[in-house]
């Protein structure tokens, strides 16, 4: 049956009127599906991506369902663009009830960003790390931060000191490491928020393996189109299922007070040992600040400023 994500997440009766969500990577795939579901439930939505036409189309659809929606274009490989996205979100919304860190992808070619950081790590981890920390003081009490990771995070470790090198690059390994970073980031954020008495929660999820999303865009066109056809095959995780996993963590009262957890679709799951390693989480957090040349967020200094 073709139920929308909010129904698949068991939250079709939720009323999000008066709340605001920023969904990164909502021009396509599961982010788009989640943004529309949140809009239908009454949330105002800040949509994000790089494709301005897709962004405008999404905003039209959101406005049609009554959402006060806007699109902000930002390339996540560009530090200034991420800061501008945070600024624009702050300027155009009273506060954020929901931050969905979902933008990301698989990138086949080895390259460094202008910051001198491996591209996949930068786009998939460093950008949401910066965005989240830029928006900490804009999060409503009890806001939720949801980060799209992946089961692909398993079977790798991450040396945050090695992310400025692309020697021996493998696109898949880089993707795996960036998704491990997503889980470690979500957990470290949860702990630092909790330590400061903040009611803001932070969780990570695997949305399912979803051939019908835009995720396969790195493949040659016939293969990418072929993957999309699988969307219709019974038993295959659909874009709506993946969007539902995001919507579940973003909205369901079953996860109201849950923070620092990893979900596989809509079920809590244990992530890899490396993902659970506190020391690795702390090192990633500190090294990420170092790469960006910023003070460590939610560190010893500036505590009161960053949380409520
Ligand atoms: N599909 C799967 O099987 C699967 C499995 C596990 C996890 N995930 C994760 O799910 C998330 C969403 O992916 P999806 O499957 O929905 O794929 P998708 O349809 O390709 O969506 C990816 C979104 O991220 C945005 N994005 C990509 N690179 C960007 C960049 N450099 N700067 C700014 N935005 C960028 C895209 O925006 P533009 O197109 O406008 O650039 C798009 O809105 C990703 O984090 C992915 O790693 C997917």
Q: Can you describe what's shown?
A:
By secondary structure, the chain is of the alpha/beta class. The protein has a single domain (5-294), classed as 3-Layer(aba) Sandwich (Rossmann fold). It contains 11 helices and 8 strands. It has helices spanning 5-8, 29-40, 52-64, 79-92, 119-134, 171-195, 221-229, 239-251, 273-276, 278-292, 303-306; strands spanning 20-23, 44-49, 69-73, 96-101, 139-148, 201-206, 262-264, 267-269. The longest helix is centred in the middle third of the chain and has 25 residues, at 171-195. The protein is globular. Mean pLDDT is 95; it is low at 301-308. The chain binds NADP nicotinamide-adenine-dinucleotide phosphate. NADP nicotinamide-adenine-dinucleotide phosphate binds next to helix 2. Residues 25-31, 49-51, 54, 75-77, 102-105, 123, 148, 150, 206-207, 209-210, 213-215, 217 line the site of NADP nicotinamide-adenine-dinucleotide phosphate.
């Amino acid at each position: 049956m073709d139920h929308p994500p909010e129904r698949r997440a068991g939250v079709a009766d939720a009323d999000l009127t008066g709340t605001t969500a920023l969904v990164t990577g909502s021009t396509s795939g599961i982010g788009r599906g989640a943004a529309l579901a949140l809009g239908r439930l009454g949330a105002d939505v800040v949509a994000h991506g790089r494709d301005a036409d897709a962004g405008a189309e999404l905003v039209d659809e959101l406005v049609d369902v009554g959402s006060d929606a806007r699109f902000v274009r930002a390339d996540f490989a560009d530090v200034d663009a991420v800061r501008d996205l945070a600024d624009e979100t702050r300027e155009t919304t009273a506060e954020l009830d929901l931050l969905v860190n979902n933008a990301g992808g698989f990138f086949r070619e080895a390259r460094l960003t202008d910051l001198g950081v491996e591209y996949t790590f930068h786009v998939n981890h460093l950008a949401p790390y910066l965005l989240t920390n830029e928006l900490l003081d804009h999060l409503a009490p009890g806001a939720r931060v949801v980060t799209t990771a992946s089961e692909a995070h398993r079977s790798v470790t991450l040396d945050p000191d090695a992310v400025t090198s692309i020697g021996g690059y493998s696109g898949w390994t880089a993707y795996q490491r960036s998704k491990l970073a997503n889980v470690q980031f979500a957990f470290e954020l949860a702990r630092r928020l909790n330590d400061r008495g903040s009611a803001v929660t932070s969780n990570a999820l695997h949305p399912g393996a979803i051939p019908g999303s835009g995720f396969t865009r790195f493949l040659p066109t016939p293969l990418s189109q072929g993957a999309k056809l699988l969307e219709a095959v019974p038993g295959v995780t659909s874009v709506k299922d993946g969007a539902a996993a995001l919507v579940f963590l973003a909205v369901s009262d079953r996860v109201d007070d849950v923070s620092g957890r990893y979900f596989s679709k809509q079920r809590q799951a244990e992530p890899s040992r490396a993902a659970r390693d506190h020391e690795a989480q702390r090192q990633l957090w500190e090294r990420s600040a170092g790469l960006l040349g910023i003070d460590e967020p939610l560190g010893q200094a500036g505590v009161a400023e960053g949380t409520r």
